[in-house]
Design brief:
By secondary structure, this protein is an alpha/beta fold. It contains 6 helices and 6 strands. It has a single domain, classed as Rossmann fold. Helix 2 packs parallel to helix 3 and helix 5 runs antiparallel to helix 6. The longest helix has 23 residues.
């Protein structure tokens, strides 16, 4: 069965390497490793042409890497019609996104759950009609001041390095989720153990 890996972010070069776009960059890294390219959804057929996303086809794994080309709070308007057109149930849609409640460098896997206040995840839950999809949260830290400004400010210096390392670790998990016949619970155990010493809070 086809699986979707959905990276959440905002389209446009002005948002590259902002905290809100680490989901995009995790997919970029996974695509780079597998030598995949992102294309318009029309490559799947004319009926898909109007879906606002770009995708990379991983035929070996029977998977699509998907980046919604809506803004963050409308992510579900790209993910839901794609999943429904392909007959992909929510349980086979994995979302990757930034999390203010995790310290920079920390990563967490969850099998399902609420939005946690994340607008992109909220949109996916609403449009899919379910919160039973796995997700990988990449910590970006919560600032003392304006959270909206924080997630849309480009990362520089050490913060950029930490984000790049987090993205590489995220790509490791995404590849494992697509490659291995293990249950998600086993992957959670393996990767949480691997990541336990990452990040200021033990990540």
């Amino acid at each position: 069965m086809t699986r979707l890996v959905v990276g959440l972010g905002n389209p446009g070069p002005q948002y590259e390497w902002t905290p809100h776009n680490v989901g995009f960059h995790a997919l970029d890294e996974l695509a780079r490793r597998s030598r995949l390219i992102f294309e318009a959804p029309a490559v799947l057929g004319p009926a898909m042409a109007s879906i606002p996303c770009v995708l990379a086809r991983d035929t070996r794994r029977d998977a699509l890497l998907v980046k919604p080309m809506t803004f963050m709070n409308l992510s579900g308007t790209a993910v839901a019609p794609l999943a429904r057109s392909l007959g992909v149930p929510p349980e086979q849609v994995l979302a990757v996104f930034d999390d203010l409640d995790l310290a920079p460098g920390a990563l967490r896997i969850r099998p399902h759950g609420g939005s946690g206040g994340h607008n992109g995840v909220r949109s996916m839950v609403q449009m899919l009609g379910s919160d039973h999809f796995p997700r990988l949260r990449i910590g970006v830290g919560r600032p003392r001041t304006d959270a909206a400004r924080h997630v849309l400010t480009q990362l520089t210096g050490d913060a950029r390095v930490v984000a790049e390392i987090s993205v590489a670790h995220a790509a490791d998990f995404l590849a494992a989720w697509l490659d291995e016949p293990e249950s998600l619970e086993k992957l959670m155990t393996r990767f949480h153990s691997r990541w336990k010493d990452l990040g200021p809070d033990g990540g």
